[in-house]
Design a protein that fits this description.
This protein is of the alpha+beta class. The longest helix has 22 residues. α2 crosses α3, α3 packs across α4 and α5 crosses α6. The chain contains nine helices and seven strands; from the N terminus they run ααβααββαααββααββ. The protein has a four-stranded antiparallel beta sheet.
Length: about 220
């Protein structure tokens, strides 16, 4: 679905309540009812419904009617549920970080034009390590760092899944190169942050970042 006016999506997310609901629905991984969205964000069902429908009107969410999983359908219409509208909107939430990849590639070409691919991996690792070191000095933890970088981290029992790729468009066109640089960057970030209980693992899956961070040393 494409938004005719890209600023419609931006303006819909200026309201903090709508942004909180949008972020929750994006990360839920399943269609979300009004009750669930309200409980998750501390809103009443009616207020959550109002904001969710505004997000549908801005083409950021889509709404359908279906019964919750495992629950038999009763009389009347199934409850209204919401899910992300997809990748067709013109605004990017969260922001992409293509400049970071561009800077890494430019530095690699300057450093070793004959072996730019190998040099790019080294630069990506060093860029991640330097950033992690600086963030650690400010007391920033891993999850906060990943959130700030736009990865949308989702911790599970044994790993951190990354629901967004900040380099999405480039990764779609140059998958091996960009995913390799992303892996090197995140490996360096872990080292810089001193996150010795995590490792970066290439694990490409549709709709997510190509790297995840399981527990344990490399």
């Amino acid at each position: 679905m494409t938004v005719d006016d890209p600023w419609t999506g931006v303006s819909a997310l200026v309201d903090p309540s709508r942004r909180a609901l949008y972020d929750y629905v994006r990360r839920a991984g399943h269609p979300v009812s009004r009750e669930e969205a309200g409980d998750a964000t501390g809103m009443s069902r009616g207020l959550a419904a109002f904001h969710l429908d505004k997000l549908v009107g801005a083409s950021l969410l889509r709404a359908t009617y279906q019964s919750p999983p495992g629950q038999l359908r009763g009389r009347g219409r199934s409850p209204k549920v919401y899910e992300p509208a997809g990748e067709g909107i013109a605004v990017t939430i969260p922001e992409r970080r293509y400049q970071l990849i561009a800077e890494i590639l430019a530095a690699a070409v300057d450093d070793d034009p004959a072996h730019a691919g190998r040099a790019a991996g080294q630069h990506a690792h060093e860029r991640g390590r330097a950033l992690g070191t600086a963030l650690a000095a400010d007391g920033t933890d891993l999850t906060t760092a990943l959130t700030h970088l736009g990865f949308e981290p989702h911790p599970t029992a044994d790993r951190i899944l990354l629901h967004n790729c900040p380099f999405h468009a480039l990764a779609a066109r140059h998958t091996a190169l960009v995913c390799g640089l992303n892996h090197a960057f995140l490996t360096g970030l872990l080292h810089g942050l001193g996150a010795t209980d995590r490792r970066a693992l290439l694990a490409p899956r549709p709709g997510r970042c190509c790297v995840e961070l399981p527990s344990g040393r490399p």
